[in-house]
Structures are given as structure tokens and as C-alpha cells.
Design a protein that fits this description.
The chain has 336 residues and is α+β, with helices and mostly antiparallel strands. The chain contains eleven helices and 13 strands. The protein folds into two domains: 4-119, DNA Primase, Chain A, CATH 3.90.580; 128-334, Dna Topoisomerase Vi A Subunit, Chain: A, domain 2, CATH 3.40.1360.10. A five-stranded antiparallel beta sheet has the order 5-6-7-8-9, with no helix packed on it.
Length: 336
């Protein structure tokens, strides 16, 4: 007899894949129409049932299109994230928890079943969520005070810090800024030295920046979005995405997400030591299709970046900068 949890996961899959060919076999096998094949070749592909799922192993593979680029194979979490939605993903995790508690699913395979790419990114072992009233390290408090980072900012972004006892030396004595994807899973972390003595002020995890949208879980895609360079800068204005650098390309998840989900203006605000040509490249990249005419920019002059602007002028300075956002003229775009 197949456990109820596995049947419920089958129902979750049918919500976005449609009905399976013959239902679930005693070995946990299912066959669905492959969503990628359908996207690329048309609706008739749905009747070929190329997508095979094994619920007992929590894996999937399309025997038709996967050979082309290897993108249609992996764990079910990846499939649900790509073609389902956040609610279905949460339901999937709940069913997995139930199967583990009932000892019907191997707990050693649990992390893989959720997403082996997610579990590679972990908070440092000594990570401690910051509470300004309880924190005993004066260096942490002094740094946060200097940057005007208040408890409401800390709570919103789940900011923490590490100690000198951190096993990974690169993460010692840093303010930790975690990022979570739209499903609430950790997808990136960056750390800022708070001692003033580290060789590198910033430390980033090993995840590929082109595959994430920083702080995606907090972004309202129906409101104006600000694009900035650094993780610290995204703490101050509302609805800001840190690009974690100066570059945006078509193959980046951030580009694809903005082009498909952003419904209001996008305001580019790079540091003042970044050439205006870099801003223009991002502007031209985004100013097309459904975003045409919705791209603006802010040019930092005497202030280095958004973080410095907030330190000097507070939220009033941020609001003033946003109000100064403007578009490039066609003539402007001809020159760097």
C-alpha cells in the first residue's frame, strides 16, 4: 500500500503538470507531459508523457529534452520551484516532513529531496541573530550604530553576526546578511567585517550570483524597484535588490525575473565610482519589451552609495534621491 504522503505529493504535481499517464505504480513511478517539451514544441507533447517521476527517490527526468542541455533532471523541489509556485513548494515540504516522521522516507535523503543546491548554502556555525538590547560585543553595536542600522532593519533582513570562534576563518567577526528566495529558502549570504582589521571587508558564499535574486522573498514586484550594487545598500530604501556587483546580463536570473515579474518602475542606482557607462548598459538592457519606458536612474555625485546617503541624511535623503530619478535621453545614450 502506498502511503498517503506519497499520494499527496502526486496531487501536488498534478496541479501544474496535469494528470499522469497511468497513476502511480507500486514502485512510485509516474509519467507526465514534460512542461519544457510543451513550451518548446507545442501542446501535442503533453500526450507523449516524456517526464518520468520517482516519488520514492523524489527525482524526475525528461527522456526527450533533457539530453539537449541537462536541465530537465534532478530533485522534485527543483521541478516544483521552476514550474509550480511557492504554495505548492510549501505543501511539498510539509508532506516530506510527514513522511520522515512516519519513518517512510530516509532522513539522510531529505536535504537532497528539498534541493541539494539549497543545502550547500548554510549560515556560519556561530551565526547569531542580532538583538541590540542583548548583544554584548561593542564592536558589533558600534558598527551598526555608525551605519544607522536599527532593530527593525535587523528583523526585516534577519541580520546576524559571527564571533572569533567561527570555524571557517573567512566568516569570523562579520555582520551576516542572508538572502532568501521566493520560497523562503536561503540562497545567498554575504558578510561585512565589523572590526576594521580584516583584509577583505566583504566575504561572499560560493553560490553563483547569476543564479539568484538577492532578498527575493522581500521584493514587491508590483511596486518600484531599486537596483543597487552592494548588499549593505539594499537595507535602507524600500524594495531594493542588490546586484552584488555592477553587471547585469540576459542570462542572469535577476534579468529574467525583472523582465517577467516587474510591473512598475526600475530605478538603477550604482556607486559614484562606477562609470556612467555601466549604468547605461543596464538601462539599455532593461528598457525594452514590457519594461520599455519604465527604467530610470539615479546618479550619485558627492555621496558614494545609498548606504552613505542614509548615514548622512537618513530616510529623507533616500526619498530625495528617489525623487531625482530620471530617464536617459536618446542623445545621452549615444555617449558614455
Amino acid at each position: 500500500m502506498i502511503a498517503e504522503g506519497f499520494k499527496n505529493i502526486e496531487k501536488i504535481l498534478t496541479c501544474f503538470l496535469g494528470e499522469s499517464k497511468n497513476g502511480m505504480s507500486d514502485s512510485g513511478q509516474l509519467q507526465f507531459g514534460c512542461p519544457k517539451c510543451i513550451e518548446e514544441k507545442g501542446p501535442n507533447e503533453a500526450h507523449k508523457y516524456n517526464l518520468e517521476v520517482n516519488l520514492f527517490k523524489m527525482v524526475y527526468k525528461c527522456w526527450s529534452c533533457n539530453d539537449a542541455d541537462g536541465s530537465m533532471t534532478g530533485n522534485l523541489a527543483r521541478l516544483i520551484k521552476k514550474y509550480g509556485n511557492a504554495q505548492l513548494y510549501d505543501a511539498y515540504k510539509r508532506e516530506l516532513d510527514g513522511l520522515i516522521k512516519a519513518q517512510l522516507y530516509d532522513i539522510n535523503a531529505y536535504n537532497y529531496a528539498l534541493d541539494k543546491e539549497d543545502v550547500l548554502i548554510k549560515l556560519p556555525k556561530t551565526f547569531c541573530k542580532i538583538d541590540l538590547d542583548l548583544c554584548s560585543d561593542p564592536r558589533v553595536l558600534n558598527y551598526l550604530s555608525k551605519r544607522k542600522i536599527t532593530q527593525d532593519i535587523i528583523d526585516k533582513f534577519n541580520l546576524g553576526y559571527t564571533s572569533w570562534n567561527e570555524p571557517d576563518k573567512g566568516w569570523r567577526n562579520r555582520i551576516i546578511i542572508p538572502s532568501y528566495d521566493e520560497y523562503g529558502d536561503l540562497n545567498y549570504i554575504t558578510g561585512r567585517d565589523f572590526t576594521g582589521k580584516a583584509y577583505n571587508k566583504y566575504k561572499n558564499c560560493d553560490a553563483n550570483k547569476m543564479d539568484i535574486v538577492f532578498q527575493e522573498s522581500l521584493i514587491d514586484f508590483d511596486s518600484d524597484i531599486i537596483l543597487c550594487e552592494g548588499a549593505m545598500d539594499c537595507l535602507y530604501p524600500l524594495n531594493t535588490i542588490a546586484m552584488l556587483g555592477k553587471v547585469l546580463k540576459k542570462e542572469y536570473k535577476l534579468y529574467k525575473t525583472l523582465m517577467t515579474r516587474a510591473n512598475a518602475n526600475i530605478i538603477i542606482c550604482l556607486d559614484n565610482d562606477t562609470a556612467i557607462g555601466e549604468t547605461k548598459k543596464i538601462y539599455n538592457l532593461l528598457n525594452t519589451g514590457r519594461l520599455k519606458g519604465k527604467i530610470l536612474y539615479i546618479r550619485m555625485d558627492s555621496i558614494h552609495d545609498i548606504g552613505d546617503l542614509y548615514e548622512k541624511y537618513g530616510r529623507r535623503g533616500i526619498v530625495s534621491a528617489i525623487r531625482s530619478a530620471r530617464q536617459f535621453s536618446e542623445l545621452d545614450l549615444l555617449f558614455e
